[in-house]
Amino acid sequence: MLALTRRMNVSRCSFTRIAGCYVDGDGDFDGSFNVNFLKLSAEEKKRNIELAKAVPFAATNVNLKRYEFSQEDMRPGTVWQLLMALRECGLKNDALMDSFYDLVMEHYQSRRSYAVYMFHDRYDIPAKAADKERLWESEAVFEYLICVICPLADEYEPGAPECGFLFPAYTDGGADLNHAAVFQADKDRPHRELVEKILGVK
C-alpha cells in the first residue's frame, strides 16, 4: 500500500474524478455530485483526499481486509460487473453511479444521514531496472476506485469514514481483479452489510 499512500497529498495526488451522494436520516436520496477532481480548489482537494486516505492508510488485516469475488460473483449483472464498468468509464456515467447509490441505500445500515464518496485514479506504476533503480517509463497502470461511506457531521459535510473499499485490490504491484480490500473503521463492530450485501464478497 505504500505505493498508494505516498501519493495521498495535494501535490502528488492523481485522482481524476470524484462522485458522491447524500442520504438523509430516513435512508432517502438527498442529492449527488460528479466532478473532475482537478477542478477542485486546493482546500477541497485536501479535504477529500483525507477521506480517501482512510482506506489505504488503514491497518492491513485489522481494519483493512481482502475479500474475494468468486466466479459466480463476477457474472453479468453482479456488483463486480458494475464496479468494473465504473472503473472503465472513470465515474463519468451518472446512470451507473445511481445504480451503485441505490445498492448502498438498499442495504447500508445507519440511523444517521450519511454520504457515499467514490474516487477514481490511474496510477502509473514505475518500471524498475534489474538493479531496482527506477526507470522513467511506466511499466503498467493501476486503475482503481476508492469508496468511503461517512456519517454527515453537518449538512453535506462528511465526517470520518465508517467503512469503504479499494477495488480492485492492489497485489504484487498490480490490479487484483478478483479481490477488493474492505475498510472498517471499527473492527469490532464492522458494517457486515458492506461485505455481504453491497459487495457480495467472501
What's the total helix number? 5
Shape: globular
Low-pLDDT ranges: none
Helix coverage percent: 10-25%
Summarize model confidence as the mean pLDDT. Answer: 91
Portion of residues in beta strands equals 35-45%
Please explain how this structure is put together.
24% of the residues lie in helices and 38% in strands. It is globular. The strands form two sheets. Strands 1, 2, 3, 4, 5, 6, 7 and 10 form an eight-stranded antiparallel beta sheet that branches. The mean pLDDT is 91. Helix 3 runs antiparallel to helix 4 (94-107). The longest helix has 14 residues, at 94-107. The two termini are 21 Å apart. It contains five helices and ten strands. The relative contact order is 0.19. With 202 residues, it is α+β, with helices and mostly antiparallel strands.
Describe the SSE topology.
Elements lengths: L1 H4 L9 E9 L5 E8 L5 H12 L10 E5 L10 H11 L4 H14 L6 E15 L5 E21 L2 E2 L4 E5 L1 E3 L2 E3 L2 E6 L7 H8 L3
Antiparallel strand pairs: 1-2, 1-4, 3-10, 4-5, 5-6, 5-7, 7-10, 8-9
In short:
This protein has 202 residues and is an alpha+beta fold. Helices cover 24% and strands 38% of the residues.
